[in-house]
Amino acid sequence: MLTTVVQEILVSVERLRPMPTSVTRILKELDNGDVSASRLAEYIGLDQALAALILQMANSASLGYSRTCTNLKDAVMRIGLKRLKSLLLASSSISSMNRSLKGYRLGAGDLWNHSLMTAMGCEALARAINYPDPEQAYVAGLLHDLGKLLLDQYILTDYGKIQEYIQRYQIPLSEVEEKLIGIGHAQVGGLIGERWQFPAVLVEAIRCHHKPSAARIDPLLPAIVNMANAIVIEKYQANSGLFDNVLDETTYSILRIQDGNVEMIRKRVINHMEQ
Prior knowledge:
Elements: H1 4-14, H2 21-32, H3 37-44, H4 48-58, H5 72-79, H6 81-97, H7 110-128, H8 134-143, H9 148-157, H10 159-169, H11 173-180, H12 185-195, H13 200-207, H14 220-236, H15 251-255, H16 262-274
Helix pairs in contact: 1-12, 2-6, 3-5, 4-5, 6-8, 7-8, 7-14, 7-16, 8-13, 8-14, 9-12, 10-11, 12-13, 13-14
């Protein structure tokens, strides 16, 4: 039987606004495979917030361009159609990821920075193990902690107990959430993904990123997120807020990474993020 808190969370998911029609329209155009940058720029320009996001990402230092991009057509061409699709899927949650999460003790921008770094780590890891779709891995990393946006208020209420379980009993955050609240951020994220009609493989990667072996479609993508997430937290965010960097015991075997190759692959992922 579901607890009252879990029922409240499920209702909150159902009350989420569907993905904006401007976004779904562009995603459909991208799926058609025969759409020009000019047409995409025209559609993006109809949504002010989306246009601002695309221009911001096109001018990101990580893309390595010295010239500022000032129009949407150039932005679309600079980003590329695959990365554009990833950003569209994430667009409904990016503004929320930039706010502070008091329950998880994350300041403004902390969750977004973690998500972006994990996305980059997932892409690098996907390339290192010859995963066929590195862009799919990127968007899975970008959205893996989506559930924290809804779960934050409940974490805030139980923060003292959560800290005690983590510190005294050495239980990972994801398991503590399930014990004390009745549902974890990964499960909530999966529900949000379903609400926004994400592809099933992406929903599963979000839902199972702490337990890749629980995946029913394919554990490979959740395992990529699990390892990249652990690397990012250990290397850059070990003392920042409530994060769960526990590597699942099945991850290396799912990824077919031998013990002797772990450090080499880890360095490749970090080097990619620091380029």
